[in-house]
Amino acid sequence: MNTIRTSFSIKDLENLSGIKAHTIRIWEKRYNLLIPERTDTNIRTYNLKSLQKLMNISFLNSNGYKVSKIAALDESQIASKVKEISYQGHAEPHAFNAFKLAMLNFDQVLFYNTYNRLLEEKSFREIFYDIFIPIIQDIGILWQTLTITPSHEHFLLTDIRQKVLIHIERLQSANPKPDAKTFVLFLPLNEIHDVGLLFINYELISRGYHTIYLGENVPLEDLNLLNNLYENITYVSYFTIKPDPEDLDDYLTKFYSSVIKKTTHVMV
Hints:
By secondary structure, the protein is an alpha/beta fold. The chain has three domains: about 90 residues, Multidrug-efflux Transporter Regulator, Chain: A, Domain 2, CATH 1.10.1660; about 80 residues, Methyltransferase, Methionine Synthase (B12-binding Domains), Chain A, domain 1; about 90 residues, Rossmann fold (3-Layer(aba) Sandwich), CATH 3.40.50.280. Helix content is about 55%, strand content about 10%. It contains twelve helices and seven strands. The strands form two sheets. Strands 5-4-6-7 form a four-stranded parallel sheet, with helices on one face. α3 runs antiparallel to α6 and α6 packs antiparallel against α7. The radius of gyration is 23 Å and the shape is elongated. The mean pLDDT is about 85.
């Protein structure tokens, strides 16, 4: 089954490009920039080519090009201008759109090429903070508004996760500081969103600390095994979907009583 999206509503275009639906309609009427198709009930729909064009228009507009000037260009000229600007030290705004298009098309080549282009200008840490974190926040909203499916989200997060792992591996050839404290990183049962935890692991290792990365779905009782092996442990975790809000106090109480109490360990 083909899972690549080929049809978008005007609301989808707004969510993906950041351009208001009202503005898109004005651009259509005034400049004929996009030509929507119509359903049997006369509802606008747009193909992937229209979405790509709109994202390129948005990029040029944010880089000082007036819409009236963009309208005078054909699609190949618009794409050429985008490429030209992105290779003149303005890759970051273009990267947001490129990563979204890579996600929609499940296009790993586009993801890798965009990422490698960013590496020419930014460090990995800068890319994560300046690009990946905003995109992760965006895709949460896109998923909530039904613009993308969980498969799109998983595709993009898996590629980002892979980049974090590569940079962790590069750091792990160095030994931690002799007197480094130990950080144990884990997520509770049924919590599966670990990209942020992996990046915390990267940051800690880059600062010379000893880390033990347990990842997702960790029962509390398993943490007691570490208490017998290490002193001065700092436990690091976060919660996005689990435990449920009404269960959070009970979880933290249990964590304290079963893991932290009578030790010198802390949780952050």
